Amino acid sequence: AGSFGDLELVLARTREGREQYSLLEKGDFEGLGSWFFTRGIHSWKEGNLSLAFDLVLSGLMRATCDCQLAALVQAEKGQLLDVMKGIPSSPESDFLSSIALVFQERAQEALASIDRFVSRFPLSEPGHYFRARILASLGNKKEAWADYQQALRLNDNSRVRYRMGRFAESNSLGRAGIADLIRSVNQNPSSLCAHRWLKGIADIRRFKLQERADRFLVRLFNEGKNAAFLEVIRLLIQNGKCISPEGEPVFAPVAFRDLRHALKHALARAKIQLGNIELPFGEDCPATGELPAI
Length: 294
Prior knowledge:
mainly alpha, two-stranded antiparallel ribbon, 2 strands, 66% helix, globular, disordered C terminus
């Protein structure tokens, strides 16, 4: 950009770089995912489906929960689907259409689009992931679980683990999902949604962390209310620190290191948790309110 004297583009790229670096420096991969989702939706509205596809995938590779993507799609109230009218089927259009349709509660149509995408790219983890989400919304539990497992085999990441954990706890699969939720939080501790689900399920199952139980964040996980725990997580992510009830500063790297250590050592006990429970909350996410039950 500099070689062509395009100062406006230089400044835009510099600003974007600073924004990304700031999120990376704080370890806020959830925020970084939302950053990519926002720009992906903007490119989609402008009709640049190739760039939108790349940006949405970049967001999915970083974020654990795609609730922000759902909120952005729902806010457009069908405008994104209008952009797709008359556009021939392509991997980009099929994948994006499936997202727009499922978050507009048109799951049967979304399934046709994602089926076309997966048939072209059978080794696409996001393809199997979204097909699992769509199948789950249609009540096809067995098929949805098979796609989640295939997504995990292709790429073990926090997003797939998070959805598998939620799905297992929400449905009668003969297994608990808390081990997947633990793995999800350990892979990306910046997701408030993953923390919320893990803490809520752990409270109902009376599942306590035993290692480093005297450390601030571990103690709050074991003894605190979910809302108070999430508020501390939010402060640690946004500010890099918080103040304990004793008035002592608690720094994010140390707090998250203690929590991840305790979760890692609790994983073996989590794997043997059995049976389903009555969930502590519905399918909504804190940042977006009610979402489709996917």
